[in-house]
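ok trying this again, last paste got cut off
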Amino acid sequence: MSSVHYFQRYSQPENVVTNNTLLLLSRLYNESPFKFKLLLNELADELDLDVGVNFSQQEKAVNSIPDGFISQESFRIAIETKLADNFSVNQLANHLNSFGTETTKVLLALGPVDINSSQRKRILDKVKEFNTSKNFKVAFISTTFKEIVAIFRDVIEDYDFELTAIIDDYEEFCINSRLIRKDEYRMLTVACGYTLEDNFKNNVYYDPANRGFSYCSHLGIYDNKSVQGIGKIENVITANLKENDELQIIGTTNGTATDKQKSDILNMIKDAQQNIGWDITQNNKFFYVEKFIKTDFRKTSKRGLFGKRYFNLNQQLKRRDFENTEEIAELLKSETCKKRWVTTYITHS
């Protein structure tokens, strides 16, 4: 069964990518103007947007003091989206003419990678020249789809279930559209609880076949406010157990299921029945990892893990590459990581 998506697939012109990004931002704004403000202001240090309606009382006007005010500052963000590293300085400079009397004006370049330093210098010179001639204060920002995802995850809470599902789907769209590289270290974290011992024993985690997931290189198993194990994913195998105790393989993500993978899945099915009384013989997918390595990546914020969560391990651990899963597991134990779990036009006037 295919998952229902929030964001359009099936084509990849720039207008579809831009539309999906605007839809993502609008959903965040509709849910919380404050979180939307945090996201925009995180894009650049020089931004300090005041988003939403302000209420004030007894402010002095020119010749009077009204009892109250309801006001809203205006801003405009002009967005240029590219699917590759092919920004045009002239095109970006032409977008400067889109601004008018808004209080805050931002020109945003959004692509798979940051605009290169040579182009950045040239566009900043154009912006400076434009600001001087018009007496404007247009700010220029270059960001990536990966950064949008990271900041979005950072401003929402664990209990923002719908927003979490939305950003998961947007990130999957970006990965499938090659706007975010698929070769990065990305960990899917899932709550295990009752099954943790069996997960370690069999190097398998199971989930209903109809639950969607997006690209991940590693799987983290969570219990008692901590990711207690991490393993590199070898294959995700959808399978049913036939009456003769053989596996019927329905689908895989990485080639034919090996005899070892099938044997460990069969053991997991037996352990689930014997140890906790769960029947997982039908309609399940099995995440098979090389080996679950023990770690202790603690969640220090309130509440437990709701549903699943994705982590970009490169960003979380501030490393571009890792020797192996053992190294990742050791780094996740560090105090640095215990502090926090990281994770067209818009006109508003």
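PB: full thing came through this time. The chain has a mean pLDDT of 86.
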